[in-house]
Amino acid sequence: MKLAIAGKGGVGKTTLAAWLGDYLIRQNKEVWLIDADTAISLGPALGLSLEEVPIPLVNNKKLIQERVGTGVYINLNPEVDDLPQKLAKDVRGMKLLVMGTIAGAGSGCGCAANAMLKALLAYMILRSSQWLIVDLEAGVEHLGRGTITSVDGLIVISEPSIRGLQTASNISRLARDLGLKKQVMVLNRASEDFVPPKDIALPPIVANIPYLKSLEQRQQTSPCVLDLPEREDIDEICIKVLDALKK
Ligand SMILES: Nc1ncnc2c1ncn2[C@@H]1O[C@H](COP(=O)(O)OP(=O)(O)OP(=O)(O)O)[C@@H](O)[C@H]1O
Ligand SMILES: [Mg+2]
């Protein structure tokens, strides 16, 4: 199954991506995680040091030039079949691909970098058969820009704030308009009795992540979000999300 996680900035996308990957790998699944954000945070969230995180594909000028070319004559269908294995970093049995954001593909070789990222993302989503979780950049803009809406399911996450929920709603509508109908909503750090305003259309809420003091304390010394004392509760959240997406 191929999934993408979207939402406003700072609402817990990367944390949930890391938790889902960690849960699935312990179920003996083959798991690929894609960091499609500029912040390069998924690797550290999984426990990698900054030195261990591979350079984002979007910054790999040599490879982009080799496969896509530069200037006017760029190859929009570059060969990418060998790249997942070549570029992936092994983390706790999972494979991490650090792509960087398509929007942030940069000046100068922007078109070539975009072509490269799109081709690899399309390959990963459409042609490979393992579990794939894409941690998207914050906001909605990237959804309109490519293959991401070919995933099997979209997890929209928000905190209990109007801006977060409105962004979630916008993401959901845009994704649905682009054909991505299988969507679930996860609330993060909302109290149990929180009910979103009725006039904000959202995908069905399938899980609520409580505020975790242990995570806040952990983040003061480490970016890793795994191996928390609440792992069983976190696994339950992952199960709820994945079960809802299977329906
Ligand atoms: N339920 C929670 N309890 C405590 N801390 C949390 C919780 N969820 C997320 N956090 C913390 O909030 C911060 C933001 O989370 P995260 O990086 O996952 O958000 P994001 O949506 O990926 O952000 P960005 O838009 O910058 O990529 C992190 O430090 C994370 O550990
Ligand atoms: Mg993030």
Protein topology:
Blueprint: E1 2-6, H1 13-26, E2 31-36, H2 42-45, H3 61-68, H4 83-87, E3 89-91, E4 94-98, H5 110-126, E5 131-136, E6 153-158, H6 162-177, E7 183-188, E8 205-209, H7 213-219, H8 231-246
Parallel strand pairs: 1-5, 1-6, 2-4, 2-5, 6-7, 7-8
Antiparallel strand pairs: 3-4
Bound molecules: adenosine-5'-triphosphate and magnesium ion.
Residues 13-14, 37, 39, 41, 135 line the site of magnesium ion.
Q: Give the strand line-up of the largest sheet.
A: 3-4-2-5-1-6-7-8
Overall spatial form? globular
Strand content: 15-25%
Task: Provide mean pLDDT, rounded.
Answer: 91
Radius of gyration: 18 Å
CATH fold label: Rossmann fold
Describe the structure.
Strands 3-4-2-5-1-6-7-8 form an 8-stranded mixed sheet, sandwiched between helices. The longest helix has 17 residues, at 110-126. It has helices at residues 13-26, 42-45, 61-68, 83-87, 110-126, 162-177, 213-219, 231-246, and strands at 2-6, 31-36, 89-91, 94-98, 131-136, 153-158, 183-188, 205-209. Helices cover 35% and strands 17% of the residues. α6 (162-177) links the parallel β6 and β7. The radius of gyration is 18 Å and the shape is globular. The protein has a single domain (2-246), classed as Rossmann fold (3-Layer(aba) Sandwich), CATH 3.40.50. α3 crosses α5. Mean pLDDT is 91; it is low at 104-109. By secondary structure, it is of the alpha/beta class. Bound molecules: adenosine-5'-triphosphate and magnesium ion. Adenosine-5'-triphosphate (ATP) binds at residues 7, 9-15, 37, 39, 41, 138, 188-189, 209, 211-212, 215-216, 219, 225. Residues 13-14, 37, 39, 41, 135 line the site of magnesium ion.
